[in-house]
Amino acid sequence: MFHTRNPSQNAAEFVLLDQLVEEDHLLRKIDKHIDFSFIIEKVKPYYSENKGRPSLDPLILFKMMFIGYLYGIRSERQLEKEIYYNMAYRWFLGLNINDPVPHHSTISWNRRTRFKDTTIFQDIFDEIVLQAINHDMVGGRVLFTDSTHLKANANKHKYTRKTIEQDTQNYIKDLNEAIQEDREEHGKKPLPAKEEVKAEKEIRHSTTDPESGYMYRENKPEGFFYLDHRTTDMKHNIITDAYVTPGNVHDSVPYLDRLDHQIARFRFEVEAVALDSGYLTTPICKGLADRHIFGVIAHRRYHPTRGLFPKWKFHYDSEQDSYICPNQQVLTYSTTDR
Q1: Which of 14, 21, 198, 226 is the residue whose CA sits 20 to 30 A from 266?
Q2: pLDDT of 300 above 80
Q3: What residue numbers bound the domain in which 72 lies?
Q4: Are residues 173 and 79 in the same domain?
Q5: Total domains in the fold of the chain
């Protein structure tokens, strides 16, 4: 028998919000295994104890940002709308069906003003990693690192040209120390001090988003981007570090500092790291050797020069401190220069 329903939606119903969220929902699993209560103590120093209006619960604030990141909701205005309609989001935040959703401007103001120039986001990230370590989900023995580009909300045609100094001071200092040490071992006099020359380069500086960087790489999009540098632990693929730089910063530049941060913060005993060919630089190779870490780094394509042997065909004799070329000729030490 043909039948239709009355489309009226004005009837009052008694429902439990918990019943509207699937048992296997991702947010249920996250809520079960991650204790977010530590956030309250972390953010207390940034709030007044007795002045102003009562604040939005910081736990809700950070959980909202967490939902936005987890589900790729980049607009805070859109995030407010999604939470309004999504029962699982409301359940995760501890909001009842009739509770108002915090305004998107509240998220924006706190992120850009209250927590600006603080380490609160890094502190919260690190605390969650520590919880993963306590659950035996992170080993800290083998780490994988790579970066991915994130498009900035900036027109690539709107920029000014700016000359900046290249930060090579730390590398040059280490290089000079290594040269002098090697010369002393071979009985050579130290090289005279060299006048420091500051390297400069011209970059495109966005007038729309000054913190981004202009990226131009082979087989990559061109324009203003950020680079998201991430490190993943081998045991269960847990991300142990995330660090953002402008798109014109080379992958290798922040690597050793971020590695040291993880070793110091989480007491990792790193035995090996895996990197792509963009990290195959002399400072990184030396830095890994100094830290007694085995580096598995992808090779770069080698185009040999006609008539010359490639470097990998030469054999180093550590006892004689000499190299043996493919023609079995001995190349002895002569000197160490810059």
Answers
A1: 226
A2: no
A3: 17-118
A4: no
A5: 2
